Amino acid sequence: MSRIQTTFATLKQQGKTALIPYITAGDPHPKHTVNLMHTLVKNGADMIELGVPFSDPMADGPVIQRASERALVHKVGLTAVLDMVKEFRQTNQTTPIILMGYANPIEAIGATVFADRAKAADVDGVITVDYPPEECGDFVKELRARNIDPVFLLSPTTEPKRVELIVNQASGFVYYVSLKGVTGAANLDIVEVSARVASIREQTKLPVGVGFGIRDAATAKATAAIADAVVVGSRMVQEIEASNDDNLLGNVAALMQELKAAVDAA
Amino acid sequence: MQLYDMPDARGHFGQFGGTFVAETLVEALEELRVMYEKYRHDPEFLAEYAYDLKHFVGRPSPIYHAKRLSDQIGGAQIYLKREDLNHTGAHKINNTIGQALLAKRMGKPRVIAETGAGQHGVATATIAARLGLECVVYMGSEDVKRQAPNVFRMKLLGATVVPVESGSKTLKDALNEAMRDWVTNVHNTFYIIGTVAGPHPYPMMVRDFQAVIGVEAKEQMLEMAGRQPDAVVACVGGGSNAMGIFYPYIDVPNVRLIGVEAAGHGIETGMHAAPLTANSPVGVLHGNRTYLMQDADGQIIETHSISAGLDYPGVGPEHAWLKDIKRAEYVAITDDEAMAAFHNLCRTEGIIPALESSHALAYGQKLAKTMDKDQIVLVNLSGRGDKDINTVAKLANITL
After folding, report:
1. CATH code: domain of residue B272
2. What domain range is B243 assigned to?
3. How many contacts does A have with B, using Cβ atoms within 8 A?
4. Active site annotated at which positions (chain A) (predicted)?
5. Is B18 within 8 Å of A78 when comparing Cβ atoms?
6. Could you say which of A56, A157, A159 has the minimum Cβ distance to residue B176?
7. pLDDT band per the 50, 70, 90 thresholds, residue A189
């Protein structure tokens, strides 16, 4: 079993929903990233989604775009991100790390080399936003061969036939994007999300994470009631953006505690 | 002989092309793919398209034998395909009309577009006005400053121009932003991409709508010269005017197809926009796999060209394919060479060419010089240079 699968299994036994915060590696400065990761775990993160900065983040809204730009000022690319994961693993061997990013940085070094390096850094899952299942068969094989979970997105517009195609390629969990649009957009309609998650569950036994549009304790709680994992991205990045070197870790810890309490109360 | 038949059903040109987009866009592209398949051979749709090309754009655009230029160069005869004479002043309108007519049939009341120099934005705003569609154009904030007259043109035509502040604030960022708009508003919005890039079916669809250039040229060359040219030369940024004139010639033997990229300050300086000539690595951007200017981390790097329309770090996937199968050749022309060709055409033929097209002219002249007087080089004069007079004046330290 992969670390992601183990984590979901344990949480299920405890009757809990996973809380997965997202941060962009290198934001606001590379020196903070590993500390931030430990802070997230200390304050309730069951897994971490770590964004790989990219010059052209087409699927992201302004909040995460700016995070990418802040990281790129310090030239934080895939290699630097993998080094951060290695450093994190020196003191944490249990929390799953899921890389989230775009295809081109992976293409630049090649799928095999990437999979080798990700394994060496002890990465657990990879979400590649612009690799739909039709275009990344070989990549998925390389990941699977190393027991790394390829995690795929499902959207409100994904037809049931495609859901089947996607869940057949995915492992670890699937990530339901609860909104049309880019990350950080508008509010989510929990009734609609609930119906979609139920229909996805009819097609797969994989855990279903829900993200996009979860911005406070109330939406986190409502989502936790219907999903196996709650992913909080733009809200987390906003907190980082609004902080300074002195209050960064404290602010992020406080937000995490609030979200954790909400998710556990569901 | 096996005829050229690309792309495959999923938009692949060999290893290039494809549909590399977030899941949120897959359904929208599938809808577009199905609708385009439905209409691309539909007689009524094609008749409407042909009517607009004739009566609204003024097609066919003529082919012109540039005799004084040919004599001056002293080699092959240079012919120009006059896309500069189209309504709105460039080839871009051929494509925006096709896509806008499709948008109407798909019941989408709102169209969006990305633009660099503003030509595609103007062409989109033009057809949107003509068809009564709402139009939003995304343009890098750097380009908004550099191309003020085109920004004003779009506004006159009723479009909303949105300056894009992210990334390098140029064409590629405008494309990112248009994609974000589309993903959010896909229920009522059609995204009119201006070049032969983007996810499938865009590279194929834009090529098909631009192929009218080559189809006309084949007929006109026979009429005018009694034969096809020895070489067809066109500039390549994303590559839509080049694909348009190349495509009908792909299966014609003995016609060299030559794409001219922007060498900027020179390939060796790194300040250029010539991924094919510079042998840039293969990567994924804007929904397709192609040759891409990037650093070792796979971040897209900034490009440089005097011509905003060629200032793009990638290239349409079909060009990448034509390069690999050696059916087309790709070369590059520097800013200085393009400027010299610009001034030369103004003085010898009384035609002010776009700076983009001046790259094709510069290489066409170089090539013609090495050829015999009875040979023919056909240069695609993709646009007129009125939009560039501020840039040219600035280079000469003249304030207009």
Report:
1. 3.40.50.1100
2. 58-89+211-396
3. 122
4. 49, 60
5. no
6. A56
7. confident
